[in-house]
Amino acid sequence: MKKKLIAGNWKMNGSLAANEALIRGLLAGLGTPAGQVALCVPAVYLAQCQALLAGTGLDLGAQNVSEHEAGAYTGEISAAMLRDFGVRYCLVGHSERRQYHGESDGVVALKALRALASGITPIVCVGETLAEREAGKTEEVVRRQLAAVIHANGHCISEIVLAYEPVWAIGTGKTASTEQAQQVHAVLRAQLKAATAQADRIHILYGGSMNAANAAQLLAQPDIDGGLVGGASLKAPDFLSIIASAV
Ligand code: PEP
């Protein structure tokens, strides 16, 4: 059985001092986790976090990558640059990128491609808005978002991590019920199975107000292979408790 993966998404939070305190707090309480753990940190702190995480068994992640390989794209960061800092995972298509930065399904698919080409595992985020859920379009939306990534990445699709993050649950304190989450995860697993014989080895994470109180129940679902954790990853005790739920 594959180990669960718990990835923290710090979003645009942190400082040199706060990052160090958070990582030292995590390391002090971590012990030997049953699952894998990754921290997706703001790009400017990659070097700092790479140094703090060296030799700890925790993996370093980024929050975004350019869809371009290199060149005149001012302000962008390439997959090869991330790789230079020991980045193992990169969030791709987070709903905040789709919503505030206009990232289309096609752009998200290209970003996944760039990450994979540089040996970085993209954590591809999909999820429906509240209006889409209320209109009965949840499956249609997540299937469309995943289809673009499958189409662009071909057989390499077995190398991604997928994260189901209902947009209405992100940062709102409203978590999908275990049934709602498992149902969508099963749909995504079936779509992956149609695309690759390796679908069972792909991690499908749940994200959206996962916290110390609800993590164990969500992580016990058959198609939930880990969590993508925003707010609760910024507090060492909360994140440690989620990590401990990943057995
Ligand atoms: C996220 O940012 O991916 C996320 C799931 O945030 P939160 O846990 O705060 O809802």
Description:
- The chain is an alpha/beta fold.
- It has a single domain, classed as TIM Barrel, CATH 3.20.20.
- The chain is 41% helix and 15% strand.
- The protein contains ten helices and eight strands.
- It has helices spanning 16-30, 46-53, 79-84, 95-100, 105-117, 130-134, 138-153, 178-195, 215-219, 236-245; strands at 5-9, 36-40, 59-62, 89-92, 121-126, 161-164, 204-207, 226-229.
- An eight-stranded parallel beta barrel has the order 1-2-3-4-5-6-7-8, surrounded by five helices.
- β1 (5-9), α1 (16-30) and β2 form a beta-alpha-beta unit.
- α1 packs parallel to α2 (46-53), α1 (16-30) packs parallel to α10 (236-245) and α5 (105-117) packs across α7.
- The longest helix has 18 residues, at 178-195.
- The termini are close together.
- The model has no long low-confidence stretch (mean pLDDT 97).
Present the secondary structure layout.
Blueprint: E1 5-9, H1 16-30, E2 36-40, H2 46-53, E3 59-62, H3 79-84, E4 89-92, H4 95-100, H5 105-117, E5 121-126, H6 130-134, H7 138-153, E6 161-164, H8 178-195, E7 204-207, H9 215-219, E8 226-229, H10 236-245
Parallel strand pairs: 1-2, 1-8, 2-3, 3-4, 4-5, 5-6, 6-7, 7-8
Bound molecules: phosphoenolpyruvate.
Phosphoenolpyruvate (PEP) is lined by residues 9, 11, 165, 170-171, 207-210, 228-232.
